[in-house]
Specification:
Blueprint lengths: L6 H24 L16 H8 L1 H34 L6 H13 L2 H14 L6 H25 L3 H9 L4 H30 L2 H6 L7 H9 L5 H43 L1
Amino acid sequence: MRKGLSPFNIVSLVMGFSFLYLPILLLVLFSFNESKLVTVWGGFSTKWYGEMIRNEGLMDAAWMTLKIAVVSSTFATILGTIAGLVMVRFGSFRGRLLFSGMIYAPLVMPEVITGLSLLLMFVAISLDRGFLTITIAHITFSMCYVAVVVQSRMVTFDQSIEEAALDLGCPPMRTFFTVTLPIIMPAVVSGWLLSFTLSLDDLVIASFTSGPGSTTLPMKIYSSVRLGVTPEINAISTILVGLVTVGVLVASYVSRRQTLIRQRDERLAAAEAT
């Protein structure tokens, strides 16, 4: 038997993946439960998805969460990409240590501290809490993840490609959008999906920065679960799992396609050189 495929390793992998994914599978299964009791199987039914759609409070929270996630992840991707480029391309500059520390701080900062500090800032500037404050908060903590992903890709970036474009008369801005950005696009897409998922999942920071009429889906689910889990919660949670799964598959497809295209171009260049 080859190394790494011993019975102990196989059992360990099965137990580990079961611990991670079995609760999710049970959640999906019981979202199709006929019974009102979420722990008692009463037959297959999709009625709770209909009940979920008719639940205005739940749908408003879901729509609010999606809007916040799309807007915050888009701005976080733009800012995080710029930050990643700065940390790689500008080398050592005055204030780099402070700049890097400010980028990486939200990665290790407890969410309670981040949420409380943002709340105090919004109160100090008299900004009403709602959609805008939650979006700013999500941009604040998610852009650092994008910066890390883009920075790791830029470290291995071949700058000679950009230099060739510049030597041929391509302006710097056009070089970035036509040469650099397409090459690092898998990292940018991965950063967007990561920040989108983090925004969908956030509960603590949104609780500090939300106001009346701006309840997010995690907050709605948490407040509902305290009174008892209902099949409607299972249904909306299953849809969220499906959205995240589709996002991961799309990101994997884009990354794989970019890799295949790059390998093909390298083979063509090697063939032309010989």
